[in-house]
Design a protein that fits this description.
Layout lengths: L2 E5 L4 H13 L3 E6 L13 E5 L5 H8 L4 E4 L5 H15 L3 E5 L25 H11 L4 E7 L1 E3 L6 E5 L8 E3 H13 L7 E7 L1
Parallel strand pairs: 1-2, 1-4, 2-3, 4-5, 5-6, 6-10, 7-9
Antiparallel strand pairs: 8-10
Helix pairs in contact: 1-5, 2-3, 3-4
């Protein structure tokens, strides 16, 4: 049994990943969100909720107590959030961080898939790249996850690429992202200190 803190638990990826943990593991989940009322009913035996933002140091410090893995799927000032998260995890002694970024942050999308999705052509990705840079400069056992455009497909048929390799496809299901997160949470060597692209096969 693993203790997992999900930050951004009410978002589209966070909520699907939460349910995937409940359906496929015996792990205990701490669900952190700015509006925990949107979480709905909790599994009293396996879930607890924490209301707050990743930039609220006191709340984050409390949420990190006893955790084995942190999964963060965030929006907003991603670089600042990454800095807060790395500092708090260092202080709490929690090492395993799984962080959602985006395909294209390393200009790794080949022309055949639409190179306009790369950072050099898409300034929307600057925040994701800045956050990834903060995490990669840390001493955490991190995995930066770079999904393609995610959809509500029910498949878990996906390919992974590492940093420095061309991205493999344009889209991916949220369920596939959740499957990868569960795998990473249970294998601290998988994707260790690496950045994994994930796309539908």
């Amino acid at each position: 049994m693993t203790n997992v803190l999900i930050i951004g638990a009410t978002g589209s990826v966070g909520s699907v990943t939460r349910q995937y943990f409940l359906d496929n593991t015996a792990d205990h989940l701490t669900l952190m969100a700015r509006s925990t009322s949107r979480l709905g009913r909790l599994n009293a035996n396996r879930e607890q909720a924490v209301t707050g933002s990743v930039t609220d140091a006191a709340t984050l410090k409390a949420a990190l107590q006893g955790q084995d893995v942190v999964f963060a799927t965030l929006s907003g000032n991603l670089s600042g959030m990454a800095q807060s998260l790395v500092a708090a995890m260092d202080e709490a002694g929690v090492k395993r961080l799984l962080f959602i970024a985006s395909m294209g942050i390393y200009n790794e999308i080949p022309a055949s898939l639409g190179a306009s999705g790369n950072l050099q052509s898409n300034p929307m990705l600057r925040g994701y790249r800045a956050a990834a840079d903060v995490i990669e400069a840390s001493d955490l056992n991190y995995t930066v996850i770079r999904p393609g455009w995610f959809d509500n497909g029910n498949d878990t048929d996906y390919d992974l690429t590492k940093k420095g390799e061309p991205f493999g496809g344009h889209d991916v299901s949220r369920k596939s992202i959740a499957d990868l997160v569960v795998r990473l949470a249970h294998d601290k060597t998988l994707g260790s200190r690496d950045s994994l692209g994930i796309n539908r096969k």
